[in-house]
Design a protein that fits this description.
Elements: E1 3-14, E2 17-22, E3 30-37, E4 43-47, E5 50-55, E6 60-66, E7 77-84, E8 91-100, H1 103-107
Antiparallel strand pairs: 1-8, 2-7, 3-6, 3-8, 4-5, 4-7
């Protein structure tokens, strides 16, 4: 799936990552949030408090979300969060957020 827009490509250390990004309605309808967990604890990642996934310490993985709402329009703002699954832990992650075209759009 080709990238329509690379939104973020960075690292973070601290209590919790929370970023809100405005997306481009012409850059694709799928949002991907990839995380490499360098922490000593598991972390949970979410997009708009949906589509959550736990990534084990030392692991990596991603979640995806369709950006279209029930009317077929692409929502504009999304909040990406990564939090430790255990209290009083800090996280250490590499992460990437991208907006992509769906496979159906690629075939047109």
């Amino acid at each position: 799936m080709p990238i329509g827009l690379e939104v973020a490509d960075s690292s973070f250390e601290g209590e919790m990552l929370e970023e809100t990004h405005k997306l481009d309605d012409k850059a694709g309808e799928t949002i991907n949030f990839w995380v490499r967990n360098n922490s000593e604890c598991d972390v949970e990642l979410t997009i708009n408090d949906e589509s959550n996934r736990v990534i084990e310490a030392g692991g990596q993985g991603h979640i995806s979300l369709e950006a279209k709402d029930f009317m077929g329009f692409i929502d504009r703002k999304y909040t990406f969060k990564v939090v430790p699954t255990e209290e009083d832990n800090e996280i250490n992650i590499d992460y990437r957020i991208a907006q992509r075209f769906s496979e159906e759009e690629d075939e047109e």
